[in-house]
Each structure stands twice: as structure tokens, then as C-alpha cells.
Recover the amino acids of this structure.
């Protein structure tokens, strides 16, 4: 059942493309055009780091005076703050993260998704068609995202591929975010490992010696950027999922090489997998705030390009946090963990896995008896994401908002005893955790910061202050803010 | 042919020139050996081998040192 509010459906209906969303952000003061000329390096990364520091209200920023790229436009920070995410979901600026979280978990929907098909000759994305003399370095205002990256990365592409042995199956068509490093005017590497759907498609193509065609979509519908990174089942369509989550249509069309692409995207780069070829890829500044090393990655050759007139190249700043990457994937990392836990433990209230893709997570739970929260924590560690990502887990009571770090620190301060800390050593971990002694292995740490309950001794004669809370207090806070605004005039 | 800031080989060539009007304002180079790309207007930490940290330099004489992301079918 789709529990979206009327307002959010209204907003979703207005937003059919990146351009629509930028217009909406602009109307809220969440989108700015950089007024001065910038050098591709280091100006763009410097400006995006400065904007990204404000995870609550940072704006999307468009650059249209990039030195050496006259006439080209590039935007980043589109999902760079929770106010931008709130705008996409149909909420006012400054909506608490917890409310956005509940909105997303409430949207898991079974309604028929709306995916209207636009004939390619009428689709905006095909306004300009290029069939030869491809040059990525001329077409896109490429720049080095972090100073020691191995190239000029495209970090926010949605890549479409079909199972090469089941090419007519719409559901098995995969859309994912994979980083792309342009290598030559018409070649690039794509970072995908065997466990990714894309990796599976590449291995299958090579095994059976069949071609693998892909479509790299740039400047996408903001819901696609947000939800294509959410793990859905192998035979579920990311388009259907994103449209279902938005409760509004996402228009599709065909790419020149026969894949389903967004009709109102900014650009599509069509390419074919070069069997057996690997090229040096990396380093790349990753979400833990460290560089991945150099590896040898699969290569693709461009076969066609379409784009809108005056296309906007949308990219992302990713590196040492806080960055747009954290805001983009944070809630969609948290929601599936919550969904799994909630089925077995209805006592779970909320899951915050915003930090470094969940390397540190905070779960609030109605504690039932001594030790209960620790068992819930163990279950979280066996969810698909928790298995390798949830390294440090803090368990708090249901009266603590896990998205409010002041409250979490309060719980840590007053509800933790030394024996509430469990360390599970020698477990699976992510390859790119900078603290790993052996990449791919590490610890899980559980800090149980929930209230002590029987049969544990409570100790002392403690009563917690009942802090006034609820709508009345929230409205009061708003009133105080507006009084302050008046006073500053 | 230009020296690559990352692998020190000297096979790099110009790939693309950024222009303002008729003036070339920067050039992107490409090293065919280690596949580094750089723009000659970038800060030195990225493009001056003397200023780059040693850990980021590459030795292309030993490709097996660099992990395969996806196994190649023999
Ligand atoms: Zn080189």
C-alpha cells in the first residue's frame, strides 16, 4: 500500500526529469548557478566540498563558465542535502531526517508502476544524435573529482544492461550506478565486480561469446539516481521500483542499441563490452574517505551517443565525508535493513545507516528484557547489507531518535556499561575499509546503549526526566525560529 | 611525446585542447601505458611527479601487481 501524501504525489507528478527537479529546487532556494568562471581543477571540487559540508541545506550548484569548456554545463549536489531530498519527497525544507526515513519505508509499494513509453523520434534525449567521431573529452566538461584520482571520473551515471542470455526480459534488465573512467575519446572502463548484476552480465557475455550492449545514462530523473542504488531482486526492474517509490511516471524510450532508457534524461552513451580486455582503473576517492587502489577493469567502446540540446552533465562529489554520496544513498541504505528487521522484530523503531554506507549504524528498539537489543543487533549483522557493511552498531532505546546524534550521545553517555560492548573479531568486512588489516575482513562492534532491564540490576535509584516532546514542542520551536528571524531584521 | 607524471614513461600524447575562442587554455594528456589522464592546468600535487606521493606512482612493467576486477576467461 502506497502511503504517500497528496502533496508528495503532486510534487512527483511535476518532476519528470533532472531539469524539472532543478526548477523545483530553484523555487525553494536550493539551486544556484555559480557566478564566476571556474577552472576544472581544483575549483569545482573545492566549491562542491564547501557546499557539501552543509548536509542539511546545501544547494545543487550549476557551473556554466568552466574554463576551456565554453557553452558546457555541469551540475552537482542535486542530492547533496537532506533539504534537497525532502523536496524530492514532497516535504518542506528542514524536515527531520527521521521523518524522511519513515516516508521512504512507508513507500514500499505494490501498486502498478507507471512507465509510459515514448517513441524514440519524439523523446527529448534523442534531440541530438551522434553516430561517429565520438570524443568524451570534448562532449563532457570532465574534471578530476579528487586530486589523486587516476582520471576524470563520471560518478553518477545510471548504467543499463540486459542479461545477454535473456535479452528480452525487461525485469532482468539491470540499472545500476557504476563509476566510469573515460580512457580514450571513445573508450571507458566501468567498475563492476562479479557479484554486481552488471558483473554477472559481463561474465555471461564472455562465457558464451555473445555481445553485451549497455547504455550509460547521464542527467537522470532524481528518483532514478536515488533508487537505482537500492538493491532490488535480480528479476525486478529498477525503473518500476523508482516509479513506484515516486508514485508518478518515469517516461522510457529506446536507446540506439535497443535498451530501455529514460526519455527525458540529458544524455545516453551507448557502448559495447570489449571481451577479455582490462585496463588500469583508479585510484578513486571512495566513500570511506580513502582512495581505492589501481586495478584492471573491463573496457567498453562507444557505439552511439544521444543528448538533449545544451545537455547538463550531472556529476557527484564523493570522497571524505560529508558528501553528496552520503545523502544520496543514506536513507536507501537504512530502509532495507529496517524492512528485514521489522518483519522479525516489530520492536525495531528506526535504522540509521547514514554513516559511510553503514560502517557505523544506529538502531532504535523497544527493549523487552536484558540483552534483547544485542540479539536484534546480531540479526542486523546478518542482513544482506549488514553482513559486511555494519561494522560498528549502536543500539538505542525507542525514545532515542537514531538520526539525532545529540540524543544518541546522551544514550551512550548514560546507558552504557563496559559489559554492554561486544566485539566479534575476524568477520567479513568491506574491501575498502581503511582500518582493515586484511582487506575484506574486520570486526563487528556492538554497543548496547539501551536501558538496563531485569534480570540485570538497574543500580541506584534512577528516574529519567520526562522531556516534553511532540507536536506542541515542534510548533514552539518553529515559532521561536520565526521570532528570531524577526529579531534579526 | 610527453613524460607521464604517474609512471614516468614518455609515451603520453595530447588528447584534447580546451579553448576560449581561438586560444588554447589547457591540454589534456593521456598515457597509453598506465592510462593516467591529466590536464596541464591542474595543481602540482596531481601532475608534478616530484610533488606526487610515491604511493600513487605506478610501475607498468608488472601488470600482475594490479588486481583484476573481473576475471578474464582463458
Ligand atoms: Zn603513465
Amino acid at each position: 500500500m502506497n502511503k504517500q501524501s497528496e502533496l508528495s504525489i503532486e510534487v512527483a507528478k511535476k518532476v519528470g526529469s533532472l531539469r524539472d527537479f532543478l526548477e523545483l529546487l530553484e523555487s525553494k532556494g536550493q539551486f544556484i548557478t555559480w557566478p564566476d568562471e571556474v577552472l576544472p581543477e581544483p575549483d569545482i571540487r573545492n566549491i562542491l566540498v564547501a557546499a557539501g559540508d552543509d548536509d542539511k541545506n546545501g544547494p545543487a550548484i550549476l557551473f556554466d563558465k568552466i574554463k576551456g569548456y565554453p557553452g558546457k554545463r555541469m551540475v552537482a549536489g542535486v542530492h547533496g542535502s537532506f533539504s534537497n531530498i525532502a523536496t524530492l519527497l514532497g516535504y518542506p525544507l528542514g524536515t527531520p531526517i527521521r521523518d524522511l526515513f519513515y516516508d521512504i519505508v512507508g513507500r514500499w509499494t505494490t501498486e502498478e508502476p507507471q512507465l509510459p513509453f515514448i517513441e524514440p523520434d519524439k523523446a527529448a534525449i534523442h534531440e541530438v544524435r551522434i553516430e561517429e567521431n565520438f570524443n568524451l573529452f570534448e562532449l563532457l566538461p570532465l574534471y578530476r573529482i579528487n586530486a589523486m584520482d587516476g582520471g576524470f571520473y563520471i560518478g553518477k551515471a545510471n548504467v543499463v544492461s540486459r542479461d545477454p542470455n535473456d535479452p528480452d526480459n525487461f525485469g532482468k534488465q539491470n540499472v545500476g550506478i557504476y563509476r566510469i573512467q573515460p580512457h580514450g575519446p571513445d573508450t571507458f572502463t566501468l567498475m563492476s565486480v562479479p557479484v554486481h548484476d552488471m558483473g554477472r552480465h559481463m561474465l555471461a557475455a564472455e562465457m558464451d561469446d555473445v555481445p553485451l550492449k549497455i547504455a550509460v545514462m547521464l542527467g537522470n530523473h532524481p528518483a532514478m539516481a536515488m533508487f537505482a542504488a537500492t538493491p532490488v531482486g535480480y528479476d525486478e526492474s529498477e525503473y518500476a521500483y523508482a516509479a513506484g517509490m515516486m508514485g508518478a511516471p518515469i517516461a522510457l524510450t529506446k536507446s540506439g542499441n535497443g535498451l530501455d532508457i529514460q526519455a527525458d534524461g540529458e544524455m545516453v552513451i551507448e557502448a559495447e563490452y570489449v571481451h577479455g580486455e582490462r585496463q588500469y582503473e583508479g585510484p578513486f576517492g571512495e566513500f570511506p574517505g580513502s582512495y581505492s587502489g589501481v586495478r584492471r577493469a573491463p573496457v567498453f567502446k562507444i557505439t552511439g551517443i544521444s543528448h538533449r540540446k545544451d545537455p547538463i552533465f550531472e556529476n557527484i562529489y564523493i570522497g571524505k565525508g560529508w558528501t553528496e554520496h552520503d545523502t544520496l544513498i543514506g536513507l536507501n541504505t537504512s530502509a532495507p535493513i529496517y524492512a528485514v528487521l521489522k518483519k522479525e522484530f516489530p520492536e525495531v523503531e528506526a535504522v540509521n545507516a547514514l554513516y559511510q554506507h553503514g560502517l557505523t549504524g544506529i538502531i532504535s528498539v523497544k527493549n523487552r528484557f536484558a540483552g534483547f537489543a544485542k540479539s536484534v543487533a546480531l540479526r542486523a549483522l546478518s542482513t544482506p547489507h549488514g553482513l559486511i557493511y555494519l561494522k560498528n552498531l549502536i543500539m538505542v532505546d525507542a525514545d532515542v531518535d537514531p538520526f539525532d546524534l545529540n540524543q544518541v550521545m546522551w544514550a551512550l553517555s548514560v546507558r552504557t556499561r563496559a559489559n554492554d560492548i561486544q566485539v566479534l573479531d575476524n568477520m567479513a568486512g568491506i574491501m575498502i575499509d581503511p582500518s582493515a588489516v586484511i582487506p575484506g575482513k574486520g570486526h563487528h562492534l556492538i554497543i548496547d546503549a539501551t536501558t538496563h532491564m531485569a534480570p540485570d540490576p538497574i543500580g541506584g535509584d534512577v528516574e529519567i526526566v520526562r522531556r516534553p516532546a511532540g507536536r506542541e514542542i515542534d510548533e514552539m520551536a518553529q515559532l521561536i525560529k520565526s521570532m528570531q528571524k524577526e529579531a534579526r531584521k | 611525446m610527453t613524460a607521464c607524471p604517474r609512471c614516468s614513461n614518455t609515451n603520453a600524447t595530447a588528447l584534447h585542447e580546451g579553448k576560449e575562442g581561438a586560444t588554447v587554455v589547457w591540454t589534456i594528456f593521456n598515457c597509453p601505458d598506465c592510462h593516467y589522464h591529466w590536464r596541464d592546468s591542474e595543481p602540482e600535487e596531481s601532475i608534478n611527479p616530484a610533488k606526487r606521493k610515491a604511493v600513487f606512482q605506478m610501475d607498468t612493467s608488472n601488470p600482475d601487481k594490479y588486481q583484476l576486477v573481473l576475471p578474464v576467461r582463458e
